[in-house]
Design brief:
649 residues, Maltoporin, Chain A, 22-stranded antiparallel barrel, five-stranded mixed beta sheet, disordered N terminus
Length: 649
Amino acid sequence: MVKPANRSLLRKIGQTGLILLICLPLSGQDSFFQDTVKINEVIISGKKANEVLAGYKKVRIDTAILSRYYHESLEDLLVENSGIFVKSYGLGGSATPSFRGTGASHTQLQWNNININNPMLGQADLSLVPAGLIDRVDISYGGSSLSEGTGGIGGIINLENKPVWRNGAIVSFSPLIGSFGHYSGQIKARAGSLNFQSSTRVYMSYSENDFEYYNDVTSAEPVKEVMENNETIMRGLMQEFYYRKSKDVLSARLWYQYADRNLPSSMLIPQSSLTEKQVDESLRAMVNYDGQFGISEYFITGAYTLSKLNYTNASASIDSHNRSESMIMKTGMMNRIGGNIRSKLILENEHVLVNSENYSEGKSGRNVLSLAAIAEVNSNGKLGATLHVKEILHGKTLLIPDFSTGLQFRITNSEEHYLKANFSRNSKLPSMNDLFWVPGGNQNLQSESALTYELTYEMTHQISLPLKAAFNVSAYHNSINNLIQWRPGNYSYWIADNVKNVNTSGIESSTTFEYNTTRMESSLKISYIYTNAITTGSDIHNDESIGKQLIYIPEHQVNGLLRFGYKGWYADWRTGYTGKRYTTSDNTSYLPGFVLNSISSGYSLQHRSKLFNLGLTVDNLFNITYQTIAYYPQPGRSFSLKLLIQIVK
């Protein structure tokens, strides 16, 4: 828990920062204009492991969008810029993704193509990932994940860091002050030449998260309460080095982060009895070599990840220490045969060791070796086809091979109109907790498997010189077998078992219009997502979830974004509807749907080699009351003021 003395000091620091902000000639962080001054041409390079393969759907969130999220988490970025539903326990609480109706463990989070899901849980907490540390986010759906990792039945989210080859240095400083005692700051520094680059990013964030909410559960009439025991402190560092010679690039990356969070309980428990706390600490290191020899491109990556989690609950006399380590070696080679055919081989080995007081022998480990072969044919851009085959060796067990095949047809030569289809089989291994947790872990668990069908239409059309339109719609169906679930056992504890079969199907669509001139930029994007996720079979006697929607999966989601920029001024309006989510497996209880609105506005000023940005954001504009997890309230209307100062040398 944050001590009162430290809390008072942090308040003073924040107040001083606000005074400094007001005294400076500032300008806002821009929705349209990137947070960089105009410089000479630069070259960004990296391996092509993440190219869009023929027949598959992929979404990219680039630097222009990421520049608006320096102080936000990956959770905020994905909620506002993708169709991924995020289950959040509120400010300071954990946040996990749900891809196309699948669970959090069916989404793989990667950092530069290396898995960083917690091996104990088999999933990632998006609230612990600062979006400001990332240069690009690639989201791969369904079968396309086979080329990049193992276990991404729903999909893969890959966080990329890239070098910018240029002479000189760029330094930026960005503080923020916001509602509910929120203060954060980030410093970025890039320096180097056309052959060597260094990038350093440091961030720190503190938030009391002491928002007001109405408790309508513990009494007949709603009672206004203040969220307590919800302080969070986060800090971290990312260091990158890049060296290139000709077409070869050697890179080294280090990412350290620390989070100290007090955990509030639900509205069912009195605030005064809250004593939960969680400390997360992680270290990720990576060395990568990209090269080219003749018609072959290849890469070799070695990575090490360390995660520590300490959970304490004084009232329950719990002090749990957990430590996990992963050592990953990954290599691949791509060959181009003529102008239309390319092949790729990717070999990956991941060794995991967990040291936990909750495992029977204290320590447990496993080794997973996978080999993927990919062939792609692209006939003059008109017709394309892709075939993946992947084999996984889990310990001494050889799994049934996974595979995926995709077809792509370009409807017209003059415009970007594509019809895509793919079919795949994908597997997911049990997590370490599923296997070894005491009590309830089950070392006899089978891997989950899914058959996925997907059909996509994509279109980009230049209606006139300033007006461009884009449209895409995808229909998909997943059939997941041997779903792992923790269920009541024969004794007083729960056990992990393969008990269910689940089908998820749905439609994803988005329409975008852009109208840009020399002085003005504007855009409108509207998206709609329908998700049907039901249990089709179960080994549980009289399972009432059969034929029912999975809990916390909304059937309907609608998002809209309107942006406008003129000279240095900008503004945007975001709105989103999330439909009702069932909270019980028999669908008798649910959380009602809600609509959130947020607005941002600001001004950008560039003077010679300096850039100043000042922006104001209002979240939950209409101060609505809502929950994404039952009995965990979300905050009402909030404000944040951001500053960016950048200098180029």
